[in-house]
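pinned: reference chain
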Amino acid sequence: MTTYAIGDVQGCHAELVALLETLTVTREDRLWFVGDLVNRGPGSLETLRLVKSLGDQAVVVLGNHDLHWLAIYYGGHDARRGDTFDTLMGAPDVEELSDWLRRQPLVHVDEALGFSLVHAGIHPRWSPGELRTLAREVEVVMAGSGHAAYFADMYGNVPANWSAELEGMPRLRHITNVCTRMRLLHADGSLDFQYKEELTTVPDHLTPWFERYASVRPDERIVFGHWAALDGVTGHANLIATDTGCVWGRELTAVDLSTLERVSVSCRG
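pinned: its structure tokens
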């Protein structure tokens, strides 16, 4: 059995099908999706149908674009310029797919395999297990009867820093932002939400989360996506970036977690 971690699909259904064919995936293999299954690409509906049909063969963690769709569908938010949700919104199975999506986790920790899966990253103040426990607080709300209120109030950059004293929506929002939006940290550990470009031009006062993580928790192995400008490169073999920018015209990538070998297919459109 092989476990493959697959980078941000973002509605690139044709490329996902091509990647799975290239990998010659069998029913015994496992597929880890790093989040952002939907949006910007043309096939969000088909992507959700495909991944959902995989059942227990697939492990999915939610990304910011997945949450954005759920905030539109359940939370009453408007779509933004560049969103590609029209076909999904009009689909006969939109309710079934959205209900399935909101029940997916933010963090997956596989102790036997020795890897953790999250969309954006893990803050260096937390071990994967600690973040998994905190993320469960959000997941319970998303899957429960209060999900509409959560999605209605999910957006925002505040609080940018963590306190164990946080309660209610500020607490849930910070946990959500760490799991799905984090890229860079200020010296005090607070999250920066402005910079999204290459590592070579990161402002001096900011540090990529994975650099901090490598210095304080060097033995943890984390698989993440979200930051397409990294193009799959972190400089740390145990901190594995999988988003290689398929939706921006580059590639969709899978990583074999037993060998760390990468297999990619080019964007078709």
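why pinned: The longest strand covers residues 251-256. DSSP finds nine helices and twelve strands in the chain.
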